[in-house]
């Protein structure tokens, strides 16, 4: 084994250890939240695509856990941000941890992959770029992967939370004019803070104090 191979193997092992640690910290944090909310659920930990992946699952129908998913996954997104912050507080490093609850994100991934494949097929047939609806970073990533698998290119345009995917032909680019500040309206200081604010409605625990109106 060469020195370079040994170094790469060591770095890979260090990364895996770090991600496993992130999962353990996240699991402890989520268990505490489940206790506060008086909800039952098991926590599974894994490492997927160089990210810690944590899932809250239930043997029952998971109806109670739907409270932690919310409309269109809004509460789930907020809870993921809180969990990442909890990991950052313990490790000092930025976390890209992915959280799923009651299989919502896994099901959403399947739907988005199908959407991306269909959009790619439509663009191939029409020869024209296609603009999709605004999506979260997770949703855009799934669509980008599906479009790439179909042999086309895609780009994200716009500003959060209205950022969207444009599917392009490989030999063509198409730019959509981004809305002006006046058109977009007042922006929140932090989108993550906004999402965490959704979760506060469940636990009444403030998560962000800077830059928010009382």
Keywords summarizing the entry:
three-stranded mixed β-sheet
Based on secondary structure, the structural category is: alpha+beta
What letter string, H or E per element, gives the SSE order? HEEHEHEHEEHH
Shape: globular
Percent helix: 40-55%
**Strand element count:** 6
Largest sheet: 3 strands, mixed
**Cα distance spanning the termini:** 60 Å
How much is the average pLDDT? 81
Question: How many H/I helical runs?
Answer: 6
Give a written overview of the molecule.
This protein is of the alpha+beta class. Helices cover 50% and strands 14% of the residues. The strands form two sheets. The protein has a three-stranded mixed sheet with strand order 1-2-3, sandwiched between helices. A hairpin with a 6-residue loop joins strand 5 and strand 6 (164-168). The longest helix is centred in the N-terminal third of the chain and has 35 residues, at 3-37. It starts with a helix and ends in an 11-residue tail after the last helix.
């Amino acid at each position: 084994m060469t020195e370079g191979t040994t170094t790469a193997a060591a770095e890979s092992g260090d990364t895996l250890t770090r991600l496993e640690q992130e999962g353990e910290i996240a699991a402890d944090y989520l268990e505490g939240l489940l206790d506060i909310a008086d909800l039952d659920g098991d926590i599974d930990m894994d490492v997927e695509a160089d990210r810690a992946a944590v899932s809250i699952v239930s043997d029952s129908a998971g109806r109670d856990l739907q409270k932690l998913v919310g409309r269109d996954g809004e509460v789930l997104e907020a809870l993921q941000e809180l969990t990442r912050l909890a990991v950052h507080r313990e490790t000092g490093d930025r976390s890209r941890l992915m959280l799923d609850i009651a299989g919502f994100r896994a099901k959403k991934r399947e739907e988005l992959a199908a959407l991306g494949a269909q959009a790619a097929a439509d663009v191939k047939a029409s020869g024209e770029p296609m603009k999709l609806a605004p999506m979260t970073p997770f949703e855009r990533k799934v669509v980008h992967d599906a479009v790439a698998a179909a042999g086309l290119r895609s780009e994200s345009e716009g500003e959060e939370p209205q950022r969207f995917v444009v599917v392009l032909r490989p030999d063509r680019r198409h730019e959509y004019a981004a809305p002006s500040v006046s058109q977009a309206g007042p922006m929140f200081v932090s989108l993550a803070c906004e999402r965490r604010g959704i979760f506060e409605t469940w636990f009444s625990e403030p998560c962000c104090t800077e830059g928010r109106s009382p």
